[in-house]
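User: Hey, quick favor. My workstation is busy. Could you predict this chain's structure for me?
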Amino acid sequence: MGLFGNQLANVVEWENFSEDDIFFKWHNKEIKKGSRLILRPGQDAIFLYNGKVEGIFKDDGSFDIETQIIPFLSTLKGFKFGFNSGMRAEVLFVNTREFTVKWGTKNAINLPVNGLPGGMPIRAFGTFSCKVRDYLELIEKIAGVQNTYSIESVKDRVGAIVDQLLMKWIVKEGKDMFNLQANAYDISKGIVSDLDMELARIGMAATDFTIQSVSYPEEVRKMQEKVAAQSMLGGNLGVYQGVAMADSMANGHSSVADMAGMSVGLAMGQQMAAAMSGNMNAMNNPQSMNNQQAVGGQQQVQGGGDFKFCPNCGTKITKDAKFCVNCGTKLM
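Assistant: No problem, here it is.
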């Protein structure tokens, strides 16, 4: 029984096949007479003998190794199976499908921005795709020392350099730092070319790279929302302030104190803007400024009633002013 037990034929196949595995090595078994090779869709089989590639088979199906495989092996095409001996060879099964996996920045990337010494920190997320391209390189760099290799290992390799590639191509393209999503296609094209050169070292090829989202700090995001809101309102500050007051009321900040404070703030802003505008006009027209000073002096001498004082801080203000320009107190 022991004599004939060694003659049992083998089934050479990728057992426990996982779509996340890039390759699987079948080895340390003697291929007997009558053994068969089974190839499933999306798999290639590489026969290795003494570490050398003997043949590559790509058609899926079931094949008799003695009659359908050995005649195509480079140095073993004349191999004959003995009564109690077989062929010791390794078979490397390769997953030929395209892998698509997610990536994300490990840490925030500080992009250089004028006026911001430390740069602006961003995070980005997306997907990249890759597949096996060079079997000989894959065998030399990876399969020669490992029995299996998964896409997670490639993901770790990409994750180690993706931050650097993002920094390089965002800066190189000279894109608007606050509108990176709109320029994601151009940036991705540059990244996938560099990524392809990196993966070529292990016999892989980068086929695609996408940036799905770019996240900015909370402060920058809020600033973008405000700018967008003002832009939608045509840049009309008065309308924007009115909308802000309405939002404040809708959010429950509608007490008398809140509304009064907002009104005082708006009034003060308007008065300050008017005062600044008047000062600028006076500086640009000295003669007008002298005339105004003369008229003002006469009015002060004649009546002295064109001015009044704030009851809160004592600031001298014009008679028809509704708010104190110094402390914002509402005047009667």
